[in-house]
Automatic annotation (TrEMBL):
Residues 584-654 form the Fibronectin type III-like domain. It comes from Bifidobacterium samirii. It comes from the Bacteria. Gene3D superfamilies: Glycoside hydrolase family 3 C-terminal domain, Glycoside hydrolase, family 3, N-terminal domain, Immunoglobulins. Keywords: Carbohydrate metabolism, Glycosidase, Hydrolase. This is Glycosyl hydrolase.
Length: 816
């Protein structure tokens, strides 16, 4: 039977999930259901029905480094290697659609989910994501890049409206997705929870049809984030294919009713059903059962892949000279004191839906001890040094300092960073600082006079008050289950660190361009900084940073010479001037005509990782492409290239570009000076932008709405804390209190409670497998607005009405 021959109700049923992780198939048409699963750096294949936040048990799988760490490799081929292993595990664990990678732009370093995202730059994010997608899909499994789009904060994530100008959206927040779609052809894409300029992402026709499908040529399935669908009918009209996880039959009836009323065309319904059916067909798994586990051989091989990825992604941030030479690598014969709770109890991934049940686990103390035979570096002792949750414990610190001060200790290895509470889905960070007890410990260790080598564990930038006092800093990010052995190999010189930062590290949080308005606590998250995100801001406004975008040291030394530009790209020579083989990341930046439209001072437009033997030179080529010179012309509603003299610059980070040349571009429009009414934007001084200047950038006045006096179905449960209804107010305040207590007690966020607090009531009808419908949600909101008895009556009556309707729909589907 052909898909078109199915009844309207059967096709409608295919457009929502049948359970937490499964789609609905159709036996009559030979369309099987398929399985979706997190995640972006390891398969979280849950046992039983499971839950979407990863609190339930899941099958063992390899935990690879997180996206924020892998991006520091600047190596799409390495990401593809990781993707191949990741896709193989997804296939073997009976997963059809792997929900990743995440490639939202890192607008602000405090976003709790930044560890899951690649970069502040769309070129890096897009190219790295494309590599991972190609690797995953080589196994017959669908990748699912997310969260599409303009998704930058966890607070109110299901009830937030991203207000942004079209040009910034296109150039910064969508270009990474565009690259991933055009270069890697993902079969699926996931929409974000938030609204974009007042329209939910999963029902945003401009986003899903005009841009994704018509402009970029995407022909796959668009799936909602779990609970992220608002209106099933609006989604189908706009290009949203599948609503997850499990709204029961409520959405089915809404779609059927819209077709019967003529407000939804059956052609749109057919198109969406065909997109879902195609995923079932092209990812059909054979010979795999849901009870299968990874083979021992694959688990071992993929652990080695995870180690290679971690090795290629570690970033040497400092390596000072000591009396015996550079602090790193550690030399044979050295006795090293190891300090830090995370040296023995590793932290190698973040919290939330991406959390993986790793097949094995390593720690730095054991790995450094085991490596002594081949490296000659001896562990002189280990001390915990600090309380992991940040509580003051003078005894721990004193014991660590006493160990470091011993006469036979040559150097101190301090492993510090962010704890499990700091980086999580559902929760933004409150500070860029690491716990004060760790900062105090590093300062005390440095005061012993021994060289202190810091291994920094964190998924995003942190402030480093002790940076000038330590001998070396190796940033390993969240490096996956093999991160400890990779770290030891880098520390001892068995591996030459080659990572470069994929985001700027500011001196302090207040230096960030969006620090004054992030995260938005109300409905509207206004992107008033425009295109001045990350290095685009710091370089244009002239703000000093701790580490510039693209920065990374090495045990080698490199030089750049002989830049030549032609019609299709640039060529230049990179030389390894040292006796140590290594790799650097060559980066191409462009600056537009001086009399052209508003632009940051420079923007990354290409990069390549270059491996060189000692004293070897190579000619390197970076080609121009559709992204190199374009800007989005809002007035003409199209991409344009300005004619004029551009500047091309090459180097190994955004602040160190030794090669530069003017280059004449013959574009399709003449250069047009920026509007003087943009005021502070012209110099990148976004912290002082006025509302009038922002209106010029946006093309219209931007007015943030006041606090709602009446709560609606799209206001988060957290907003009930100020409700007129005693019952709702008590529920919200109890949840807020409970989450805080759990986090304090366990050292980890209470993800389920956070999800509920961020969730708007309308999500109840999308995540309860049909137990709650939209009419019951309306009644629940009446309770929140103080109409307790009327609301309760509506809930009770709605429950029985909904149960009856569900039975009727089920009979239709079963042809009873």
């Amino acid at each position: 039977m052909e898909l078109e021959e199915l009844s309207v109700v059967e096709k409608a049923a295919m457009l929502s999930g049948g359970s937490e992780w499964d789609s609905r198939g159709n036996e009559r048409a030979g369309i099987p259901s398929f399985v979706m699963s997190d995640g972006p750096h390891g398969v979280r294949r849950q046992l039983g029905e499971g839950d979407h936040l990863g609190l339930g048990a899941s099958k063992p799988a390899t935990c690879f480094p997180t996206a924020g760490t892998v991006a520091n490799s600047w190596d799409p081929a390495l990401a593809e290697t990781m993707g191949k292993a990741l896709g193989k595990e997804a296939h073997d664990l009976d997963v059809n659609v792997l929900l990743g990678p995440g490639l939202n732009i890192k607008r602000n370093p405090l976003c709790g989910r930044n560890f899951e995202y690649y970069s502040e730059d769309p070129i890096v994010a897009g190219r790295m994501a494309a590599g991972l997608i190609r690797g995953i899909q080589s196994n017959g499994v669908s990748a699912c890049p997310k969260h599409f789009a303009v998704n930058s904060q966890e607070l109110r994530r299901q009830a937030s409206n991203s207000v942004i100008d079209e040009r910034t959206m296109r150039e910064i927040y969508l270009t990474g997705f565009e690259i991933a779609v055009r270069e890697a052809a993902p079969l699926t894409i996931m929409t974000s929870y938030n609204e974009i300029n007042g329209v939910y992402a999963h029902e945003n026709k401009h986003l899903l049809q005009d841009i994704l499908r018509d402009e970029w040529g995407f022909d796959g399935m668009v799936v909602s984030d779990w609970g992220g669908s608002n209106s099933a009918v609006a989604a189908v009209k706009a290009g949203g294919s599948l609503e997850m996880p499990s709204p029961g039959y409520t959405s089915v009836r809404e779609l059927v009713g819209a077709v019967e009323a003529g407000t939804l065309s059956e052609a749109d319904l057919n198109a969406r059903a065909a997109e879902v059916a195609r995923i079932a067909a092209v990812t059909k798994l054979t010979g795999v059962g849901r009870d299968d586990l990874l083979s021992d051989a694959d688990a071992a091989a993929h652990h080695e892949v995870a180690r290679r990825v971690a090795e290629g992604s570690s970033v040497l941030l400092k390596n000072a000279a000591t009396a015996a030479g550079a602090a790193l690598p550690l030399r044979a014969g050295m006795r090293v004191a190891v300090v830090g709770d995370m040296a023995q109890t590793p932290r190698f991934q973040g919290s939330g839906s991406s959390k993986v049940n790793a097949t094995r686990e390593e720690n730095i103390v054991d790995e450094l001890t085991a490596a002594a035979g081949r490296t000659g570096v001896t562990v002189a002792g280990y001390q915990q040094g600090y309380d992991r949750q940040g509580a003051e414990n003078r005894a721990l610190s004193d014991a660590a300092v006493a160990l470091a001060a011993q006469g036979d200790v040559d150097a101190v290895l301090a492993v510090v960073g962010l704890d499990e509470r700091s980086e999580s889905e559902g929760l933004d960070r409150s500070t860029m600082a690491i716990p004060q007890v760790q900062n105090d410990l590093v300062a005390a260790l440095a005061a012993t006079g021994k060289p202190v080598v810091v291994v920094l564990v964190a998924g995003s930038p942190v402030e480093l008050p002790w940076f000038d006092d330590v001998a070396a800093v190796l940033y390993v990010g969240l490096s996956g289950q093999a991160g400890a052995s990779a770290t030891v190999r880098a520390l001892t010189g068995e591996v030459n660190p080659s990572g470069h930062l994929a985001e700027t590290w500011p001196m302090r949080y207040d230096d960030c361009p969006s620090a004054g308005w992030y995260p938005a606590i109300g409905r509207d998250a206004i992107y008033r900084e425009g295109p001045f995100v990350g290095y685009r801001y710091y370089g244009t406004a002239g703000v000093d940073v701790r580490f510039p975008f693209g920065y990374g040291l090495s045990y080698s030394a490199f030089s750049y010479t002989n830049l030549v530009a032609d019609e299709t790209g640039v060529s230049f020579t990179v030389t390894n001037d040292s006796d140590v083989a290594g790799a650097t990341v060559a980066q191409l930046y462009v600056s537009g005509p001086s009399d052209g439209v508003l632009r940051p001072a420079r923007e990354l437009k290409g990069f390549t990782k270059v491996w060189l033997d000692a004293h070897e030179s190579k000619t390197v080529r970076i080609e121009f492409d559709r992204y190199t010179f374009r800007h989005f012309d809002m007035a003409a509603n199209k991409w344009a290239v300005e004619s004029g003299i551009w500047t091309l610059a090459v180097g190994d980070n955004a602040a160190d570009l030794p090669l530069a040349t003017p280059f004449a571009v013959a574009g399709d429009v003449d250069a047009k000076p920026a509007d003087p009414a943009l005021g502070h934007y012209l110099t990148g001084d976004v912290k002082h932008v006025t509302d009038a200047e922002m209106a010029t950038l946006f093309g219209h006045e931007v007015i943030a709405p006041g606090k709602p006096t009446v709560l609606g179905v799209n206001d988060p449960i957290s907003s009930w804390a100020d409700s007129r209804g005693f019952t709702a107010r008590t529920v919200a305040r109890t949840l807020i209190s409970r989450e805080a207590k759990v986090r304090e007690k366990t050292g980890a966020p209470d993800l389920n409670t956070l999800f509920i607090l961020n969730m708007p009531p309308r999500a109840m009808s999308k995540m309860t497998q049909g137990m709650v419908d939209s009419a019951m949600v309306d009644a629940i909101v009446k309770i929140a607005n103080g109409h307790t008895f009327r609301g309760l009556g509506g809930v009770i009556a709605g429950f029985f009405r909904n149960q009856s309707a569900n039975k009727h729909t089920e009979k239709e589907l079963n042809h009873d």
